[in-house]
Amino acid sequence: MTLIVLCLCFMVTIGTGDILPQLSSEITKLGFHREIHRKLTFPVALLPGLVPGGDVECHVMFDELIPAGAYMDPYQLENLRMFVGLNVEIHDQVDLEAPEFQSSAIHVSVFSNLSLIGDSWQAGYVFPVHIRYHGISDSSEFVRVKFITPSVAIRCQDTTYQMTFYGYGGPIHSQQSRLCSRGSPILCDWMFIQTEKICCRYHKNEIRKDF
Amino acid sequence: MRSFMDFTSQVVMALALRLLLLVYGEWQDRTMAVKFTDIDYHVFSDAAKFVDQGMSPYQRATYRYTPLLAWMLQPNIYISSSFGKIVFILLDVFTGYLIYTVLKMRGVNDKTANICAAIWLLNPLPMTVSSRGNAESVMSCLVLLCLYFIYKGQVMWTAIVYAIAVHFKIYPVIYALPIYLWLGNSEGHLQVSGWKGMLIFGLPNKGRCKFVMTTATVLAALTWICYRLYGWEFIEHTYLYHITRRDIKHNFSPYFYELYLQTAFGDSTMIGIACFIPQVILLLTFSVIFYREPALVFLLNTFSFVTFNKVCTSQYFLWYLCLLPLILPMLTGITRLKAVAMVTLWFAGQGIWLLPAYLLEFEGMNTFLYIWAAGLAFFLINCYIMHTIMACYRPLTPPTLSKQSTTQSLNWTKWNTRDCDSKTETVQSIDSVKTVTRKTASTDSKSMKIMPKNRQVVDNIDSPGVKTRSRSKPRSVK
User: Fold this and answer.
1) pLDDT tens digit string along A102-132?
2) Where are the alpha helices (DSSP H) in A85-146?
C-alpha cells in the first residue's frame, strides 16, 4: 500500500551582488490530481530594453522534468491550450495508464510571455499533473514524488529588425538552440538563466518537505 | 391505475430530453473548465480525424475500439463535432423502442410495455451517458436487436447482428451458447435424460448451423477487412487488450486489490486466468438452465460477467441495465417493497464504494482496504440481486413464435421460491384469456389456460424426461 506525498525540492541560492529573477512554486489540490503553480518575477532592471509596447519582445521557457511517478495528460493540455492559453510541449511519449514502476520521467517545455505587473515583469503558469499508481510496500505507507525546479530560459527579439536581443542583465548559465515556441519547427537562441528559488507553499495536509 | 403516457409521447420526450442535454453539454464545454462531454468521445473523434488523414485510428492513445466506430464518426469532421452524439442518442432511443417491441411480441400488455420502456427511455443514467457522447448505446442497441430477431425467429439476421455486436465489443460472446441452445430441435429437448440426452440435444441442426456459419462469416469478414487495413494493432487494441488487461487501479471489482498486490511478484498471468473460472462456470450454468428464456439468460449472463469480471466500472452497468426492463414484467414474485429495497441496495453498494474511492483519489487518504471491502460488499449485493431475479422470475406464456420457428416444449424449471414474497403464482395481466396448445415430445397435446391477473395458473406442461420441481412436491423424471 502506498500513499503519495508530494513535495518540491528547492535549493536556495543567492549570488553575491547579482540581481536574480525569483521563481516561486506551489502545489495545490490533494490526492492523485494536482496542480503545479510557477511564477517567475524579473525586476525591470534585468530587462532594461523591454518596455510595454516597445520594439523588444521577450519570451520565457520553463524546462520541466516530470518524474516517473507522475504524468501530464497531453489531451488535457491541448484542451487547456485552447481554453486558457497554456502552451506546453511534451518531448516524450506519455503512457496514461502505466504505473510508476513501468514509467520514466517526461520532459516538457512550458512557454510563457512576460507581463508587466507593478515594477516587475512576470511570467507564470498552472499545469495539472496526475500521480501514477506506485508499487506496493511493506515498510512505508507513503511514497515521495519529487518535482524538481525547472530550468528557465529567456529569449528576446527586436521585432523591428527581426534580430535576437541580447539585453538581459542577469547571470546566464548557458545558451542553447531550442524550439521557438510550442509546435514551431523553427529554432531560436535561448539563454538559460540563474534564478532565485523562493520556498514553496504547502497544503495543510502535506507535512514533509526537503531543502 | 393512473394512465401512463403512450409510447409515442415517451419517445418524443426521451429524444427531446437527450437533445436538450446535448445542447447544455455544448454550452458547458465552451464555458467551463470541467467538461460535460465524455473523455471517450474525444478519443473517438480524434481517431476519426486520424482516419480522415489516411492514418490508423490507433494512433490515438487509448482508442481500443473497432475502426467501424471511427468510420461512423467521420461526419464529426465535415458536418458537426456533435454528429456522433446525435447518433448515440438516436440509438439510445431506438433501444427503448426495441424494449417496447420485444415485450409486445412476448404478449405483455401495452401499459406494462410502456412502463418498462420508460424505465430506459426516461432514465437519467442512459440519457446522460448517450448525451455525453459515450458509445455504449451502440452496444445496447445491437444486443436488443439481436434479441428482437431471436424472438422473431429470424436466424440469419440474429447471426448478422450478433456478429456485428461481437466485433464492436467482445463481451457479447457470452450470448453464443444460449442462442445456440435456443435454436435447438423442438422434439429433442432432453428426450433422453442425463448427460447422453444433453449431448444429443447439443448436436447441430439446421438453425444452429445457419447461425454459426453466418456469425463466423460476418465476423471473419469484418475482422479480415480491419486487419488488412490496420494490421496487428487492430487485433491488439480491439480484442487482445480487453482479454489481457490487468487494471490495478481501483474499480468496483474485488479483484483489483489482489491484482495490485500481485504487482510486487511480477507476473500475474495465472491469477488473471483463474479469475475467468467463476465467470465461465456461471455463464455455462445460466446458459444451460435458462436458454429457453433468452431475455433472462442474456441478463443473467451479462450481470454475472460484469460482477465477476477482473475490472468493473460504471460503464459496464449499462450492458445489463438495458436488458432489465425485458424481464421486469416476469418478476411477479417480488413485492414492491423488495424491489425498492434491491434498487436501494444496488445504489447504496456503489455509494459505499464511491466514498473511499473519492477520498483516495481526490484527498490522498489511504483507503485501499475500505475500497476493497466496499467492492466485496457491492459484489455480494449483485449476487443477491441475481439470486432474487432467478428465484422470483415467472415465465410468461410460451413466447410468441413466428411461423419460421419451431414449436418448443415447455418446462420451466422452478427455483427455490421461498425467497420470493408472493405465495401465489401469478401471471401477468393480459387483455383477454388465451388458450395455448403445445405439442410435447411424445406428441401428447395438453392445453394451458392462462387466466387474467391474480388467478392461479391452471396447469403446467411438462415434457417427458425433464425434472421439474414445485413448492408442493418434487416430481421424478419419466
Assistant:
1) 899 999 999 999 888 888 999 999 989 999 9
2) none
* Residues paired with A131 in a beta bridge: A70
**CA distances to A8, A44, A61 from A118, in Å:** 28, 10, 22
Q: Do B364 and A4 touch (CB under 8 A)?
A: yes
Q: How many residues are present in chain A?
A: 211
The CA dihedral of B311, B359, B37, B130, to the nearest 10 degrees, is: 50
d(CA A93, CA A95): 7
Instruction: Note whether B70 and B57 are within 8 A (CB).
Output: yes
Instruction: Give the integer Cα–Cα distance in Å for A86 and A88.
Output: 6
Map grid coordinates 492513445 to a residue.
Answer: B61
Please, where are the H alpha helices in B32-82?
Answer: 39-52, 67-72, 75-78
Residue of A nearest to B257 (CA): A1
**Cβ–Cβ gap B363/A31 under 8 Å:** yes
Which three cell numbers, joined as nine digits, stand for A190?
535561448
In this prediction, residue B345 has a pLDDT band, given cuts at 50, 70 and 90, of very high
- Read off the pLDDT of residues B105-130 as tens digits, 9 standing for 90 and up: 999 999 999 999 999 999 999 999 99
Alpha carbon distance B280, B299 (integer Å): 15
Chain B: closest CA distance from residue A192 (Å):
33
At B211, the amino acid letter reads: F
Q: Cβ(A52)–Cβ(A58) under 8 Å? A: no
Q: Provide the ipTM.
A: 0.79
Q: How far apart are the C-alpha atoms of A21 and A120, rounded to whole Å?
A: 10
Say which residues have a Cβ less than 8 Å from residue B232's Cβ, sequence separation at least 6.
Answer: none
Residue with cell 527581426: A162
> SS3 for A199?
strand
Write down the pLDDT at residue B217: 97
Comparing C-alpha atoms, which of B140, B142, B174 is closest to residue B160? B142
Q: Give the contacts of B206 (CB within 8 A, at least 6 positions apart).
A: none
Contact yes or no for B3/B112 (Cβ under 8 A): no
Model pLDDT for residues B404-448, shown as the tens digit of each residue = 333 333 333 444 445 565 444 444 433 333 333 333 333 333 333
User: Are A146 and A208 within 8 A, CB to CB?
Assistant: no
- Cβ count near B432 (within 10 Å): 6
Give residue ranges of A with CB < 8 Å to any B CB.
1, 3-5, 29-33, 74-75, 79, 83-84, 94-97, 99, 101, 133, 135-136, 141, 205
Mean pLDDT computed over every residue of chain B: 81
Using a 10 angstrom Cβ sphere, with 0-12 exposed, 13-18 middle and 19 or more buried, the burial of residue B433 is: exposed
User: What are the CA-CA distances from residue B267 to residues A101, B237, B264 (Å)?
Assistant: 14, 21, 9
The candidate with the shortest Cα–Cα distance to B7, out of B334, B324, B325, B451, is B325
User: What is d(CA B197, CA A43) in angstroms, rounded to the nearest whole number?
Assistant: 91
pLDDT at A46 over 80: yes
Q: Which of B238, B287, B445, B266 is nearest to A102 (CA)?
A: B266
